[in-house]
Amino acid sequence: MTTSLLALITGANKGIGFEAARQLGAQGIEILIGARDSQRGQEAVAKLKDEGVSAHAVIIDVSNAASIKAAAATITRDFGRLDILINNAGIGLDRLLPSEVDIAHLREVLETNFFGALITAQTFLPLLRKAAAGRIVNVSSMLGSLFHLSDPQWVGHQTLCTSYSISKTALNGFTALLSAELVGTTVKVNSVEPGYTATDMTKGNGLQTVEQAAKAIVKYATIDADGPSGGYFDIHGRIAW
Fold first, then answer.
1. Active site residue 164
2. pTM of this prediction?
3. Residues 232 and 239: beta-carbon distance below 8 Å
4. Max CA-CA distance within the chain?
5. What's the number of domains the chain is made of?
């Protein structure tokens, strides 16, 4: 019977999510690649297995509550456990003025980036509570920091990715509130800012590679019992909400 940790990463068939899976897998952690598309999920699993990582594909569309529940049922049936949940799936990095943002667009982004992460955490929390050391990482962004968004001197002050920023600010609020609920348990939850990274989502623009970006996610997915909960971090440490 395996004693390795089991990690589910949503949106993990490419980009930062896939690299986080690779780095966690290199530590001997068993990986569940969460993907909306079965073929892409299986392709990602094949790449990891070629590197010696124990990996499996799980179909999960975080914008669909029924899909989340179905994924949880599958994981409960096939594994009966979960140690690490990384809410990585995200969309909507579009420049839209707050005064002109299309409400339909905002709702779509919130459905994935906020409600999707919230429902996924709620759905998998019973399994995480049973783990010896459950960990939840909500992949956020500096674009969700009210401290930085309100600072005219900050380089991203005029980025104005309105829907994305609102969704990540909401996600950060959920992190803080959930961590308060989980005080006294073995489950820790944190928001992580991986940094401005060259991915498909950024159209190849960025200041770092996915290998660099994934390190912060992996760090807080594997913190020990003395590690923080309810914080907002990048690779260098705590950042301002």
1. yes
2. 0.95
3. yes
4. 56
5. 1
